Amino acid sequence: MPSKATRAKRPVKSAVDALGRDIEVPDPPLRIVSLVPSLTDLCFALGVGQRVVGISDVCTEPRGQLDGIKRIGGEKRPSLPAIRELQPDLVLANKEENRRQDIDRLSDSGIAVHVSHPMTIEDGASLCAQLGALVGRDQAGKALAREVRQGRARARREALAEAIDAVVLIWRDPFMTLSGETYGHDVLECLGARNPFASARQRYPKVTLEAVVAQAPALILLPDEPYAFTANDAEQVARAVPTAVVLTCPGRPFFWHGPRAREIPELVRDIAARYQGERLTRTGAGSRPDRLPP
Hints:
Number of strands: 13
Shape: elongated
Order of helices and strands: HEEEHEEHEHEHHEEHEEHEHEHH
Largest sheet: 6 strands, mixed
Structural class: alpha/beta
Mean pLDDT: 93
Number of helices: 11
Distance between the termini: 40 Å
Radius of gyration: 21 Å
Low-confidence stretches: 286-294
């Protein structure tokens, strides 16, 4: 572990994060702590996984490459003493997933904390390039950003043949959905769907199934995260909203910015095909497709 004297002599790089804060990061940062699963995944995609010395308890990707990295607690309540003990050059956080008080306390300790807040696929692409530059992997960041943008363009070509109203439920007890101020809403638009709750005041508004019925959506999607919706949940929702096609689907392309955005074209293609197949089935002109695997 480098001494404070050694660390103090290193050059620094300046950046502005999603909170509008000017931060200075040792150039390059050799010890990184990530408080968010998608940011951990992004570090490895940028080729700096070997520099990650601390991750949250819920970080899972990339699978098989996180063994031996210190776990520092949950996203909402990380162990600040454990993070300080790791003497990170850079802590990666997210405005929505992490608490401002933890960010401030780490910053007050002299630790550089970069806070991100991508709300669109384009924001996620830009973040790939920004973090790539911040960790000294400029070309890798730019290349990943291009992949994300190209994937978004492919997804739009795979979209539904005609625009429909679609609701994405992200939680239950109570049910919650997406407003227009969310990353998942932008993914839904790639599908060629309209979000009837786009104008909700809360980013993730609570809804009842009666409220969903009132919107008369043609499609309801039940991702497997952040809430792990099951086939039983799908049957319940389908009974409550019989006019809608109800499909389960993977959640990561909906909510993980960065490298997982490359999975959006496949998500869109599969949902479009299964929706169209279900509509044909309901008119007696086809067979119901299998459930999309997690």
